[in-house]
Amino acid sequence: MRCEGWTKHGGAFTLGPVRWAQCENEAVVMLVVKQKDKINKYPGCMNCWDKCKEFAIEIISAELIEDVELVKD
Questions:
Q1: Largest CA distance in the chain
Q2: 21, 44, 3, 8: which is closest to 60 by C-alpha?
Q3: What is the dihedral of CA 48, 41, 55, 68, to 10 degrees?
Q4: pLDDT of 31-50, one tens digit each?
Q5: Which regions of 1-73 does DSSP assign to beta strands (E)?
Q6: What is the C-alpha separation between 26 and 37, in angstroms, rounded?
Q7: Helix (H) or strand (E) holding 52
Q8: What is the pTM of this model?
Q9: Count: domains in the chain
Q10: Kindly report the CA angle at 7 between 5 and 11, in degrees rounded to 5?
Q11: Distance CA 38, CA 69 (A)
Q12: Does residue 14 sit within a domain?
């Protein structure tokens, strides 16, 4: 299952129009998040989970997706 994280590229201080791109990573957790008073559940990768914490998005819960093997370096 693919991660549902989206990132913005381009815009105010860069050349070219704003475009949004979906994360290419495989999802490893199901994140329940609260944004703008709405609660939603999304599959996410570890990088996007870290970005949620970095941007202070309220994470209500995180559940490991059982079919995924975590690889440690």
A1: 42
A2: 44
A3: -20
A4: 999 988 999 999 999 999 99
A5: 6-9, 19-22, 29-35, 38-44, 58-64
A6: 27
A7: helix 46-54
A8: 0.74
A9: 1
A10: 165
A11: 30
A12: yes
- Quote the CA–CA distance of 73 and 60 in Å, as a whole number: 28
Q: Residues 27, 28, 29, CA angle at the centre, nearest 5°?
A: 100
> Whose structure tokens read 């999304």?
42
Strand spans (E) along 24-64: 29-35, 38-44, 58-64
Domain span holding position 38: 6-64
Q: Choose among 57, 69, 71, 70: nearest CA to 4.
A: 57
Both tokens of 49, joined, read 């989970």
- Give the mean pLDDT of 8-32: 86
List the end-to-end C-alpha distance of the chain, in Å, as a whole number. Answer: 22
